[in-house]
Design brief:
This protein is mainly alpha-helical and about 280 residues long. The chain is about 55% helix and about 5% strand. Bound molecules: iron/sulfur cluster (2 copies).
Amino acid sequence: MRIPIHPTQYPYHFWRRAVVHPLCLVLFFCAPALGLLRVDVVSQQVVYVGQAYPFSWWSLAPIPIGFYALVLAIAAVTWQKGRVFCGWVCPHNSLTEATRAFRGALGIEPMPHNVQRVLNRAPAITVPVKIAVVLVGLGLCWGLAVLLLHYVVDWPVILGDFKGQPAHPAALLGQGLLTFIGLFALCMGHLFCKTTCPYGMAQSAMAFVQGKHPPMTIAYQGDADQQACGTCTGCLQICPVTIDPRAVDKVGEFKGCWNCGECIDACHTVKAPVGKQGILAFTQ
Ligand code: SF4
Ligand code: SF4
């Protein structure tokens, strides 16, 4: 099933993909380029919102304090709302959802429906398209690696090797290492979220501790149950982590539901033509 982006009929889909994901990606990868935050280890300066300060206990202290405050804030949200951070904010997840064609071209996942439709119509372009997609994926990994490196070194140091100057070893090492990590994460896709991500593990452990008072998740609305689904499998097809949204309240957090709401939109989509509302909703 292909769910088109429409802000009123598919609110979760629209807000996630068209607003929150792009905003979070820009903030995460471009904070140094926008002058919001940099810790330049070469010039030994820290930059907050366009203002540079020399390294000192006082200028650096906000970084660990801010980090732990953020961890506590995410933990508090997770306690109430489950893995909502994964579904809405996490840059790895946003990139994973935007790069399905890359894994499709490598044969790791099925191709996205829209790309596959084009390839079915013109099989002759399959190989060139796949090669182009892989090259774009590699370029994306390198580009993001450079943006991340900018958190700790400035552009002249990062790009020195492209201007006929001797390359700074740290910049070369950083680009290579970050590109490799990015490529690894891109290839793993959502498997990383389900099996490797430390935050995901911590969240699952938290859900276990919460026991009978689990965080928000997906469930049937009111008296609805699986009988109301008939032969439909719309929500199963759309779930980005390939779990069954209809049973997530029973086994939810351990299967990785991250409260993205895509299944709610999908259910509205299949029910709308017969004049009914969707039967899935968030539990709180
Ligand atoms: S079950 Fe629904 S809310 Fe949970 S991850 Fe899948 S689509 Fe998103
Ligand atoms: S989309 Fe709605 S009707 Fe279809 S299987 Fe899922 S819950 Fe049932």
